[in-house]
Amino acid sequence: MDRKIEKKYWNTKRIAYIALGVLLATFVIYQLAFADKRSKLNVETDKITISEVKEGVYDEFIIVQGVVQPLKTIQLDAIVGGYVTQKLVEGGNMVDEGEIILRLENQQLKLNFLQSETEASRLVNELQNTRQRLKVERFNLQKTLSDLDFQIAQAKDAFDRNEKLRKDNVVSDMEYQNTKREYERLMRQREIEIESQKYQQENAEIQIKQLEGTLARTEQNVELWRQTIQNLVVKAPVSGLLSSIDVEIGSNINQGQNIGQIDDMDGFKLRADIDEHYISRVFPGLKATFDFSGTTYEMEIIKVYPEVINGRFAVDLVFNAQTPDGIRRGQSSPIRLELGESEKAILLPVGGFFSDTGGNWVYVVEEGGSRAAKRNITLGRRNPQYYEVLDGLQPGDKVVTSSYSNFGDKEVLELK
To answer: TM segments (predicted)?
Structure first.
């Protein structure tokens, strides 16, 4: 007899479906609650740079490029213009102070000198004539006064005699009055002559002073023209190397034109251009070091040029003690310029990441080294080797310090 076989509820197929559903639900719950949803990018480790954060001494310095220059450079400018008749020294030769370098010719200057000399000679003659005239007038005054004094004496004798005779009624009143008037006329004439001669003498003395002043100025002018003509001979103002001279025989030189320069070979300095970002921190006396032929030389800034050109400003540095042997004008070399005191800090090596993140975040390698994730950080000062870490990193952390330009906005790098 047939028996009804009841179908089992927990059969293999049902169990498989339930297990699959549980697994799917578990996966969905994990993805929603626990899975890493950050964007990722696979990166080959050998194509990036990974640097370790460490604690060490932070030296605040910058590296600038310095160019060797003579300690002093004297520019040769033409004091007067003219055309070159002789060129006695070529560029690149040593010259002694006072040595003739060029001879110039300028006919107009010579003509002006002769005219000035002629005017001075004329004034000398006029001054001599005025002084001679004054002497003659003094002699004439003495002669005139002498004649007047003689006439006055005669008139006075006649007047005194007639005055006595008049009392005795020997001479008439008219004769007496005539002698009196003659005596008084001569006395007044003498006073007038003295006043006239005094005026003429004062006038002559004024003329002499004016002529003397004019002559003095003219003689100064003559001396100036003489010195100007002497400047047609161009001489070395100091001993040194005539590093350049930019004229040839027959060429015309204008007044004030630069014709060359002389380098003082007693010492050298270095001139360096620095980014304007540091202009408030650079000042005379700031220390620096310069490496040459395996030796380090100490230097310091002696002058800061305030002009900023194309975002940079210049400084001059000199050696504190010995100048390196064999150094030459025009050589360039890096200079380490100290901006502050050394101190302990957490250090992150400099890298291309900064231009992409501005130092606000980095990729930090996680434990195991298989991935690197974004982390916000705060950086402080920077020197050519390290950034000063203020927050976000600890010694021992490993950071991707190469450029991030190919990583886009990915949050995690899968390192392969």
So the answer is: 15-34
